[in-house]
Hints:
Blueprint: H1 2-6, E1 11-16, E2 34-35, E3 38-39, H2 40-50, E4 55-60, H3 64-77, E5 84-88, H4 95-106, E6 111-116, H5 124-137, E7 141-147, E8 156-159, E9 165-169, H6 176-179, E10 183-192, H7 193-200, E11 205-206, E12 211-212, H8 217-223, E13 228-233, H9 245-265, E14 269-270, E15 277-278, E16 283-284, E17 289-290, E18 294-297, E19 301-302, E20 307-308, E21 312-315, E22 318-319, E23 324-325, E24 329-331, E25 334-335, E26 340-341, E27 345-347, E28 352-353, E29 358-361, E30 363-366, E31 369-370, E32 375-378, E33 381-383, E34 385-387, E35 392-393, E36 398-400, E37 410-412, E38 417-418, E39 423-425, E40 428-430, E41 435-436, E42 441-442, E43 451-452
Parallel strand pairs: 1-4, 1-6, 4-5, 7-13, 14-17, 15-18, 16-19, 17-20, 18-21, 19-22, 20-23, 21-24, 22-25, 23-26, 24-27, 25-28, 26-29, 27-30, 28-31, 29-32, 30-33, 31-34, 32-35, 34-37, 35-38, 36-39, 37-40, 38-41, 39-42, 41-43
Antiparallel strand pairs: 2-3, 6-10, 7-10, 8-9, 11-12
The protein binds uridine-diphosphate-N-acetylglucosamine (UD1) and calcium ion.
Amino acid sequence: MSHAKKGQGQLAALILAAGQGTRMESSIPKVLHHVGGRPMLYYVLRIANALKPGAIGVVVGHESDEVKKKTLEMAKSVGFNRPIQFILQKKPLGSGNAVVESLPFLRKFKTGIVMCGDTPLLTYESMYNLALTHDQLKGQATLLTARIANPKGYGRIVRGALGEVQRIVEESVASPKELGISEVNSGAYVFEIDALIAGLKQIGAKGPKKEHFLTDMMEVIRAKGGRIHAYTTTSAEEALGVNNRSQLAVAERILNKRMLERLMISGVTIRDPQSTHVDADVEIGQDTVIYPGTILRGKTKIGRMCRIGPFTHIEDTQIGNECEVRFSYVLQSRLLEKTSVGPFAHIRPDSSIGPRARVGNFTEVKASRIGFGSKVNHLSYIGDADIAEDVNIGAGTITCNYDGKAKHKTSIGAKAFVGSNVNLIAPVKVGRGAKIAAGSTVTEDVPDDALAIARARQVNKT
Ligand code: UD1
Ligand code: CA
């Protein structure tokens, strides 16, 4: 884009995120409500960053400390590389006032992109095209608009006889005829900063809340002889502004659909997109098959040729190639290649399983390593344990890691064989190649290759 070529200092991006979001009926600031596993604001920030402005301004007001903190966290976690500056809007006096408060930031730049923090479905492509249109047509403002079937709640675009944009009319002050207009304001604009500086003073307070509408700038610009242009996106869903929880659910569904579409096109089989939910940052390799009822969250990364689901929830977990996870719940862990988990397993944070290991039904694993080829197939609890390679853990084995005060470690050497229904009272070490008789309660370390029997001898009384 020629903005970028002109060098930094030419283009600023401004994100409006100061509103309370009254209609969310929430104690959480609106722009921090999640869609696709990320705050809505994240998607807008990501686009702002990708447009390569000289700086990104974020207008904060309601719960400003929290919004600032989360913004910086997001910027850090995904490596945004543009400087971010916060602007405090002292009172929630409307989008026009939010931009007035931002003038000290904006006036260092020639052109400003303005976006709303509650529009998570905007795409980079449309914002790029908007900026390009602004560049080519050289008006004072260019709007991103969309034609939608049900325009209720949005500002409508009023065009003249030649199709020229005349003004934006907010729903609350629109005439019945204007309410019938299906072209709406997405809330994303490009402005010449000089025009903003000159025009913002002339916007009056409106409505019951005495707010200043940024949208009134269009009339002001035209009254001064300026020109307004529009870029109309062909995907109407992009204009969705999230004002309430019902719209939040619509945004969630659309983002998820986009994500699944992208995965399917890249070679992932998704058996039932309707019942599959994948967060925006999840990565999945080719020829992996996702079965119905699967939820993949956070920074989950799955390799090739895996089989995931049905009915599985995986969060912030790395999974190698050719793994299988069925009917299970897996959190913040690593499964190395050719490992199989489930059905009905619970893998808790900080576990590392595999390669070629197997965790079977009704087994819980917490903060443990289960090494190459080892098996914990049935009904076990493995917590704070280090299990080396080729170990077999019998059904119903429990690592007793908690004495009521502290957690203790269990370590099991390679090729050890732990019989069924064994209690390992931690801290305890089981040596390489050791064997433990079924039903034992092991309180002392077992040397390499030894057989430990720790149970009462059977007595048959008649
Ligand atoms: C706004 C537009 C409307 C457009 C719609 C698109 C105005 C007057 N109307 O309406 O034309 O169709 O978005 O979604 O702009 N904000 C502040 N400070 C404030 C008020 C709002 O920073 O004092 C921020 C909010 O955090 C939000 C954005 O501005 O991110 C838009 O505000 P919102 O109240 O959601 O406006 P809408 O009624 O949706
Ligand atoms: Ca809105």
